[in-house]
Automatic annotation (TrEMBL):
Residues in Phosducin domain copies: 6-131
Name of the protein in its database record: Viral IAP-associated factor-like protein
Bilayer-spanning residue ranges: none
Gene Ontology biological-process annotations: protein folding
GO cellular component terms attached to this protein's record: cytoplasm
Family: Belongs to the phosducin family.
Pfam families: Phosducin (PF02114)
InterPro entries linked to this entry: Phosducin-like_chap/apop_reg, Phosducin_thioredoxin-like_dom, Thioredoxin-like_sf
Length: 148
């Protein structure tokens, strides 16, 4: 009934106020989403991990956190190539925690024949493992590889 009494100018002003409220609410929602995404994007690099840090950085990584752990050894060309690719990938996926560890430091007596090895975890649970050069197509490995 009150709307019927308003003039066209008053209705137009009321409509503009409502539009402004909707736009402000939408803006707040977008800012909240952007802040949430920025909070997730906290890694962006491959970090060295020790056996002592394993539980903290892998098993207790946190809710919603993916962890990719690369076991490697110096002097193995495919491990070096994979480290290069993972460094690039970590920048593209900053919400994923990328770790690398010298194989025998992380797992005593880990055989060199199983290198490189990648273990992928989500919220502390192992989801996938890629072990040995055959999993990575040898030195033909590229950033476009769909082996993961």
């Amino acid at each position: 009934q009150q709307l019927e009494r308003l003039s066209l100018d008053e209705l137009d002003e009321l409509e503009n106020e409502e539009d402004e409220k909707v736009i402000l609410e939408y803006r707040k929602k977008c800012i909240t989403q952007m802040k949430a995404e920025a909070a997730k994007a906290r890694y962006g690099e491959v970090r060295e991990n020790s056996a002592e840090d394993y539980v903290e950085h892998v098993n207790n990584a946190g809710e919603g956190v993916w962890v990719m752990l690369h076991l490697f050894k110096q002097g193995i060309p495919l491990c070096s190539l994979l480290n290069q690719h993972l460094s690039q990938l970590s920048v593209k996926l900053p919400a994923t925690k990328f770790l690398k560890s010298i194989s025998t430091t992380c797992i005593p007596n880990f055989p060199d024949s199983n290198l490189p090895a990648i273990f992928i975890y989500f919220e502390g649970d192992l989801k996938k493992q890629l072990v040995g050069p055959h999993e990575f197509r040898g030195m033909n490995l590229t950033m476009d590889c769909e082996c993961v």
